[in-house]
Amino acid sequence: MKNIIIRTDASVEIGSGHVMRCLTIAHNLKREGCNVRFWMEPHTGNLIDYVAQQGYETISKAEQADLYIIDHYGIDLEWEQNIRPYTRNLIVIDDLARAHDCDVLLDQNVVPNFEVRYDELVPKRCIKLLGPKYLIMREEFIEARQQIRQRNQNIQRLLVFMGGTDPTNETMKILTALEELTFAHVDVVVGNGNVNKENIEQICHKRSYHYHCQISYMAQLMQQADFSIGAGGSSMWERCYVGLPSSSTIVADNQLITTHYADQLGAVINLGWHEEAKVDTYKNLLNRLDEIDVERFKKIGLQLTATPQPNDWLSHVMELLA
């Protein structure tokens, strides 16, 4: 049995996206017979208990393993070099085109020149898995893509998800914008790390919105929604993957290039940097939803995320471990 350690973190500042996509990786590797452990720090808003509930042991220091997988913006080239005595193989997941010492580099994002932007940043021996062909997708999303439904201009079912922790409090802005508007059904999703989740839950209950916290059925909600207001990052590609028209607010630096480019390609509506996205920004968006060509957004999103084999990265990982 191959032993794998995943080094990642979640916190109020970091968010939960890194851990969530690493859980997808862990589930796939576990099905291949690997023993997967997580190395995580107990930051405020961490998901250590959640990872344990998913069946994975967590550690707090370096240990020997056949493979380390790193998904962390706070870890750099020097850290990777220092961890080499503990492992034969190193995989890095990145979105920021930084220098790395790794055997496999995975960046699933669609950005200008994504095919070549790591050429001078990783060792020559490094296998580069770049672009949407290597999207890290949970099984629920893969199944949802097989059941894409037809949408029309009558947008009555709205999905709001601004990331697991929503550190810039976008959800409250959106709820304020919705005060004088009526939709047949509104789903509001938050993570355990959202410090405003109790207040959000109270507002949802008062307005008969549907409140969801730390869920495992996001793809189902995306299937049912007519439109989604969300953040950039991996959840933006999930919306594209299941053909859900959406807006994206940039809530972290790493989302800047990808969100702008997805907007240029016509896959999402970019609402800009979170400090520029005011209550009126969301209100104006909601008031003009009937003008949005939902089929066009769906078509472009599906085209961008088309892949011949879902989770195509897995075969490369298994080859590395062979």
Would you write up a description of this structure?
The chain has 322 residues and is an alpha/beta fold. It folds into two domains: 3-135 and 307-321, Rossmann fold (3-Layer(aba) Sandwich); 140-304, Rossmann fold, CATH 3.40.50.2000. Helices cover 33% and strands 20% of the residues. The chain has twelve helices and 13 strands. The strands form two sheets. The chain has a seven-stranded parallel beta sheet with strand order 3-2-1-4-5-6-7. It has a six-stranded parallel beta sheet with strand order 10-9-8-11-12-13, sandwiched between helices. The longest helix is centred in the first third of the chain and has 15 residues, at 17-31. The protein is globular, with a radius of gyration of 19 Å. The relative contact order is 0.14.
The number of helical segments is: 12
The CATH topology of the largest domain comes to Rossmann fold
Q: How big is the Rg?
A: 19 Å
| Mean of pLDDT | 95
Q: How does the helix and strand content classify structurally?
A: alpha/beta
Helix content: 25-40%
Give me the CATH superfamily of the largest domain: Glycogen Phosphorylase B
CATH architecture annotation of the largest domain: 3-Layer(aba) Sandwich
The main sheet orders its strands as 3-2-1-4-5-6-7
Head-to-tail CA distance between termini: 11 Å
Strand content: 15-25%
SSE string, helix = H, strand = E?
EHEHEEHEEEHEHEHEHEHEHEHHH
| Low-confidence parts | none
